[in-house]
Amino acid sequence: ALQVGHDLGAALMTARALERERRLVADLQRVEDYRSQLVAMLSHELRTPLTVISGNLELLGEADLDPAARRHHEAMRRGTDRMGTVVDDLLLLARVSNPDHPLVALPLDVRRVGREVVALVDSTARAKGVELSLDEPDTPLVVLGDAVELDRLVGNLASNAVKYTGSGGRVAVRFRRAADEVVLTVSDTGIGISEEDQRELFRAFFRSTNPAALRESGTGLGLTTVATIAARHGGRIQVASRLGEGSTFTVSLPASSPVPTSVAPSTEES
Ligand code: ADP
């Protein structure tokens, strides 16, 4: 009877500990939900007045300003530009993190996304003296996804790679099919990321304390957004890097079979 009592006591204690843990997790989830709702609401509220300020600053810029006023105007413009970037990054992160905003996934060929992104980032790369290349297969690489989100995913990785690579460096964007996945790799020969930083990389607002990285401006929201978009597409992201040598980000997404092209009528007319 003593043994049974003892076992029962132990079981009861385990049950209580589990219940405490369950409540703690639920509390943390509520805090996290509240935090992201607050951020989403705040960025929404900030967007409208910011648009008004930017618009008026632009009009003011066309006026005949004396040199001192011109300098003040320029400082205000830079400040609002910076604020606009932060607010837009926050809004996008809030949108892709919102469980009430489900993913609208359509079949799309990621090679198109790659070409668009590379065309967009290429001028920045050229201006910096960074060689940018795109490598993709001749056949379609189809995933089920949201074109705007995947554009941001590839765009953030490619622009980071260019941003954190100095003159004379190389950035390669590659797409390939591996078993039932579409694999994107973005590699650079840039400043690299320490092992310690690699563990923090996907946390919102994280920015490395590496002076070479801090020379570039940023919000620390780009990679969090990339990881969130990959996760909601059923994919995953990995990083491999060595400080001073470069970094490779790999995103794997579930592949979808290509949309069957309709059988074209025969054109043998001669
Ligand atoms: P940021 O706006 O600061 O670039 P991200 O979330 O995109 O924000 O990246 C977070 C941090 O990760 C950056 O501040 C930088 O230190 C580091 N990082 C991201 N991509 C690279 C890269 N390709 N090479 C080196 N460091 C990188």
For the structure shown, list the relevant keywords:
270 residues; alpha+beta; five-stranded mixed beta sheet; two-stranded antiparallel ribbon; 7 helices; 7 strands; globular; disordered C terminus; binds adenosine-5'-diphosphate
Total number of strands: 7
Helicity level? 40-55%
Give the cofactors and ligands: adenosine-5'-diphosphate
Extract low-pLDDT stretches.
264-270
Major β-sheet annotation: 5 strands, mixed
Distance between the termini: 98 Å
- Note the beta-strand portion: 15-25%
Number of helices: 7
Widest sheet: strand order?
A: 2-4-5-7-6
- Using only C-alpha atoms, the radius of gyration works out to 24 Å
Give the topology string: H per helix, E per strand.
HHEHEEHEEHHHEE
Averaged pLDDT: 91
Describe the structure.
- The chain has 270 residues and is α+β, with helices and mostly antiparallel strands.
- It has helices at 2-62, 67-97, 110-128, 147-163, 195-198, 211-214, 222-232; strands spanning 106-109, 131-135, 142-145, 170-178, 181-188, 236-242, 246-254.
- Strands 2-4-5-7-6 form a five-stranded mixed β-sheet, covered by helices on one side. A two-stranded antiparallel sheet has the order 1-3.
- A hairpin with a 2-residue loop joins strand 4 (170-178) and strand 5 (181-188).
- Helix 2 (67-97) runs parallel beside helix 7 and helix 4 (147-163) packs antiparallel against helix 7.
- The chain is globular.
- The termini are far apart.
- The site of adenosine-5'-diphosphate (ADP) has 21 residues, from helix 4 and helix 7.
- The site of adenosine-5'-diphosphate has 21 residues, from helix 4 and helix 7.
- Residues 254-267 have a biased composition (Low complexity).
- It comes from Nocardioides flavescens.
- Residues 254-270 are annotated as: Disordered.
- This is histidine kinase.
